[in-house]
Design goal:
Blueprint: E1 29-31, E2 36-38, H1 40-46, E3 57-59, E4 75-77, E5 80-82, H2 84-93, E6 105-106
Antiparallel strand pairs: 1-2, 1-3, 4-5, 4-6
Length: about 110
């Protein structure tokens, strides 16, 4: 089963974080106690000892656009997440010009 494993030439799908442990695979599980997002393998390996084996988890949902609320986010700017179409519309309007914008990143 290759679910969650990125092929070396496959782009990361928008909105899904990378595992905070290995920084390679897609994160599919969020540990409620650790507050970390893990791929299946890293979750299993980091939670196989007494205490952590009782941690509970949820499925990692993709980050959604903070503006339209219906599309998966692909960009983060000004501490908010946007889908590509909302980001393009805001960028065209000039919202992201100037030093106050900070870092614009893909997510």
């Amino acid at each position: 089963n290759n679910r969650g494993i990125l092929h070396p030439r496959s782009p990361k799908p928008d909105g899904y974080p990378i595992c905070l442990n290995c920084n390679i695979e897609l994160a599919w599980k969020v540990c409620k106690q650790c507050e970390f997002s893990y791929c299946f393998h890293c979750f299993r390996m980091s939670h196989n000892f007494i205490g952590a084996d009782k941690h509970t988890w949820t499925i990692q949902e993709p980050h959604m656009c903070g503006l339209c609320k219906k599309n998966v986010a692909g960009k983060r700017a000004k501490g908010k997440e946007f889908c590509h179409s909302c980001f393009a519309r805001l960028e065209k309007s000039g919202v992201f010009r100037g030093k106050a914008v900070g870092k614009i990143e893909d997510i």
